Amino acid sequence: MRWTRRILVAAGTAIIAYAVYGAIHDPDTAPAGQLAFLAAVVIAHDALLMALTIGSGILIGRLLPVPIRKPVRAAAIISLTLTLMALPLVLGRGRRPDDPSALPLNYTRGLLIILALVWAIALATAWRTKTRRPNHADTEA
Predict the structure, then answer these.
(1) Residue 8, beta-bridge partner list
(2) 117, 121, 122, 139: most buried by Cβ count inside 10 Å?
(3) Angle between the N-to-C axes of helices 66-91 and 107-131, in degrees from 0 to 180, rounded to the nearest 10
(4) In-domain check, residue 83
């Protein structure tokens, strides 16, 4: 696995170097704006997404029995991430009446359908885990 990791790190580093080179040499680039956006993304990730993920994981760990924690935690993390990613589309920022092709779909309905599928799979997995005979792997927290 070491050689695979080294190859992936080298490829990622090369891609980042190419992007930075392109951003530096592009006359239309606004480095201050890009750095502000990057800082906002990092802050939003650490302050919002990670805090909500850790908090929901702790809450699920305290409220639910051990056998069904994993599928519920997975569904909660997926739901949180999907909701945060879809929120700008659901809110419709940028939708203009004179341009019907901008944000043309019902993103709220799409998000609700995907969330329903995620939770249906999680609940089916939790039910299957709960109804089968317990073994040593099911007692992990």
Answers:
(1) none
(2) 122
(3) 180
(4) yes
CA atoms within 13 A on the CB side of 51: 7
Average model confidence (pLDDT) across the chain: 87
> Looking at the domain assignment, is residue 25 inside a domain?
no
Read off the pLDDT of residues 25-34 as tens digits, 9 standing for 90 and up.
888 888 788 8
Q: Is 92 helix (H, G, I), strand (E, B) or coil?
A: coil
Q: Which residue has the tokens 């680039």?
A: 29
Residue 53, judged by CB atoms within 10 A of its CB (0-12, 13-18, 19+), counts as middle
Q: What's the residue count for the chain?
A: 141
User: Residue 21: which residues within 8 A CB-CB, separation 6 or more?
Assistant: none
Task: Count the domains in the chain.
Answer: 1
Distance between CA atoms of 76 and 70, rounded to whole angstroms? 10
**Structural domain range at position 85:** 64-139
pLDDT tens readout for residues 48-100 = 888 988 999 999 999 999 889 999 999 999 999 899 889 988 988 777 778 87
Residue 2 lies in a domain: no
8 Å CB contact between 71 and 125 = yes
Q: What is the pLDDT of residue 134?
A: 60
